Amino acid sequence: MSLLYFVPLQVACVMTIWSQLQPAYAANMWNEALNKRLGTKGLDLSQVLVEVEKRGSSFEQLLTIPEQDDWVYSDGKSTSCIAFILEMYKAAGLFNPIASSVQVTEFTIKDAYILNFFENNSSRLPNWCNDGDTVKLPYCQIKGKYRMELPGYNSMEPYPHMNERCPSLPTKYYRPENC
Q: How far does the signal peptide extend, from start to end residue (predicted)?
């Protein structure tokens, strides 16, 4: 058996134990999100697992259902800082004409900076941008003692369902083309 078989099993075991030890935390952390993916309400983790089995699906498949930008939870929208920024990009039209087929809640910081949304011509950057630096970056680093390295910066055109089916197993987090 491959390691991939055991990962969802281990996740389910940890979640089950955590649900027993900290039920309120578990409910806030994943129960509502799992219910959203199933189209149900109020099921705890064990009930979610039973429902998944009834539907002939698997816990692994449930975990891979992409988060939807329009889902609202009991405590409001669930978003990260980068999803918030990308929501603004989306509202400003940067993802048009494919905006309705992009779920920015599925993006990581790297996914955001590799988007081909930024200035390509480094001569158009402000003069102060790379002033006094021996390495001329294609972007402005405003502050910081250490230089930021952004592999793949400004290199990818957005595409429908971007990042919705990307594998995320450690340690390499290999990203197939157009996953």
A: 1-26
Please state which of the ranges 3-17, 53-67, 146-160 shows the lowest mean pLDDT: 3-17
Distances (CA, A) of 129 to 91, 115, 149, 177: 28, 21, 15, 32
* Other CB atoms within 10 A of residue 162 CB: 22
Summarised one tens digit per residue, pLDDT across range 73-119 is 988 887 889 999 999 999 999 999 999 999 999 898 989 999 999 99
Q: What distance in Å separates the CA atoms of residue 24 and residue 108, rounded to the nearest whole number?
A: 27
The answer for residues whose C-beta is within 8 angstroms of residue 75's C-beta and 6 or more apart is 28
Measured at the CA of 64, the angle between CA 88 and CA 73, to 5 degrees, comes to 50
Domain ranges of the chain: 3-65, 66-166
Phi, psi of 160 (to 5 degrees): -55, 140
pLDDT of 2 above 50: no
Cis peptide before 171 (omega within 30 of 0): yes
